[in-house]
Specification:
A: Fumarate Reductase Cytochrome B subunit; two-stranded antiparallel ribbon; 8 helices; B: 7 helices; elongated; binds protoporphyrin IX containing FE
């Protein structure tokens, strides 16, 4: 097959993506089974991944940056009508759906940090910062919001399947392997960030996650 | 005169019956849920104090609230306070079918709550901190068997 193979998604972005695919259902499952210990650990892992992804959205490879895939309403409308540019990476609608999912995930994890079960024995690490009544409300929101998150994820998966079967465009393989086969050399190839930079961002994300999991103390 | 007296006493009797009427199931359920919420808030208060430098006065206050409720928990679940149509309660039927076990769980809570209060009154903050696990264990011990999980 002629054409070129280009690097599309960097390794850190793929690791974040597939880890979330595993951890979000696990978080749901552990909560339903009242295994709050595992639920907390899974939540911390998601928190660390989220912090990483948010920073990576500013300093990562070109296809992972928010600035590269968040487009104005005109670009989104043009894309919805079937015209518009065919850039590499997230399309103008997909970009917003990614940010919506990340934002909901931030809210979901954020609420979980303050949540408490009825016994008050199992709590998120920031529960001590809010009153009993506030924690009760935040816990209810935490349970409700998951349904919205799940709906958005379902939409996301449905769209990917639509591209696979109707548009005959396999988006899954590049998210797994990182590269995409193109018919011709694109106008510009995505620029990939250096692995060392990913390690530095991962260290920062881990530190922030660890600090929050300790209850965000202001002094050690 | 005589009839008046009779009517009067019958009326007074009826009134007193109305006054002393047992609260409805819904009222009892609401009252005990409010009681449990206050137990939950006091327990959270203790935990929060222990997560930083405890304020001895606040610890005493929360411990007193807990010990004030702990002796009453058994009474919150009398036979007349089982469920009724339209009343949402997380109380499981096991409370009444295995009532001896339920009362045991309630008195375990009472014992630990009193211990906590004694430590708090003695100003033994480290002791209160160490006591929280035992105290919390009695909440969980009862909830696991007698309270429905909320889903
Ligand atoms: C994206 C990550 C998360 C997801 C998808 C998630 C999902 C859920 C769901 C679906 C429930 C409701 C379970 C039910 O209906 O009984 C729940 C409850 C809860 N979650 Fe999370 N959660 C996440 C993160 C966290 C975090 C970071 C914490 C704190 C460390 C946390 C703490 C809790 C607590 C304390 C409850 C209450 C459980 C109960 O009342 O039985 N969650 N979570």
């Amino acid at each position: 097959m002629a054409g070129v193979r280009i690097a599309l998604w960097d390794l850190p972005t793929r690791i974040v993506h597939w880890s979330l695919v595993v951890l979000i259902p696990f978080s749901w499952w552990s909560a339903e089974n009242h295994d709050l210990e595992r639920h907390r650990w899974s939540g911390y892992a998601i928190l660390g991944l989220l912090v990483f992804r948010l920073i990576w959205g500013f300093v990562g490879s070109s296809t992972s940056r928010f600035a590269s895939f968040l487009r104005g309403p005109r670009a989104v409308l043009a894309y919805a009508r079937g015209s518009g540019d065919k850039r590499l990476g997230h399309n103008p609608m997909g970009g917003w759906s990614v940010v919506a999912m990340l934002a909901l995930l931030v809210a979901q994890v954020g609420l979980g940090l303050f949540a408490s079960d009825d016994d008050g024995l199992e709590t998120g690490p920031l529960n001590h910062l809010v009153s009993y009544a506030t924690a009760e409300t935040l816990t209810e929101l935490h349970e409700l919001l998951f349904n919205v998150l799940a709906a958005l994820i379902a939409l996301h998966v449905a769209t990917v399947l639509f591209y696979l079967f109707v548009r005959r465009d396999n988006l899954i393989a590049p998210m797994l392997g990182g590269s995409k086969q193109l018919d011709a050399e694109p106008a510009a190839r995505p620029t990939m960030a250096r692995p060392l930079r990913a390690l530095a961002v991962a260290a920062v994300a881990f530190a922030i996650m660890a600090w929050i999991s300790k209850g965000a103390p202001l002094a050690w | 005169m005589r009839t008046r007296l009779i009517i009067g006493s019958v009326a007074a009797g009826l009134a007193s019956v109305a006054m002393a009427q047992v609260p409805s199931v819904a009222e009892q359920v609401k009252a005990r849920q409010a009681g449990m919420k206050s137990v939950g808030a006091a327990f959270k208060g203790l935990r929060d104090e222990m997560s930083g430098t405890p304020d001895a006065a606040a610890v005493k206050r929360h411990a007193a609230v807990l010990a004030g409720h702990s002796s009453k928990v058994g009474g919150w679940f009398g036979a007349s306070a089982a469920s009724a149509p339209g009343v949402t309660t997380a109380a499981l039927p096991a409370i009444w079918t295995r009532n001896a076990d339920f009362r045991k769980a309630a008195s375990a809570f009472d014992v630990e709550a009193r211990k906590t209060l004694a430590l708090a009154n003695a100003g033994d903050m480290a002791g209160v901190g160490g006591q929280l696990r035992a105290l919390g264990g009695t909440c969980k011990g009862c909830h696991d068997d007698f309270k429905a999980k909320d889903d």
